[in-house]
Amino acid sequence: MAAMEPALSVVAILVAAVALGLVLAMRNQVAQLPRRDTGADVEQLRRDLSDIRHDLDQSQRELEELKAATHIVPAPPLPRARSVGLSDLREQLRAAHREPEPGSDE
Prior knowledge:
- With about 110 residues, the protein is an all-alpha fold.
- Helix content is about 70%, strand content about 0%.
- The chain is built from 3 helices and no strands.
């Protein structure tokens, strides 16, 4: 087991050296990537943001319209129930027509 520890140490050093080499190689590749014009990117992002805000405003207006359309208006109260039947109302109407109007000479 004691011979295994130095072997593991050597393997760990080799892995670290390979990892360091890969990192340096990747760093060089990243450095060689062409630089993009960030001004144009920022302008495109601003346009996209403006479009998103416009869409959001429109969606909010539509949502408010839907909320207003679904708002339930309470029904008006029903008329009070009449205690007099229909035949009684007819009789009252006939009696009112039989009575002379106030101010007439009958």
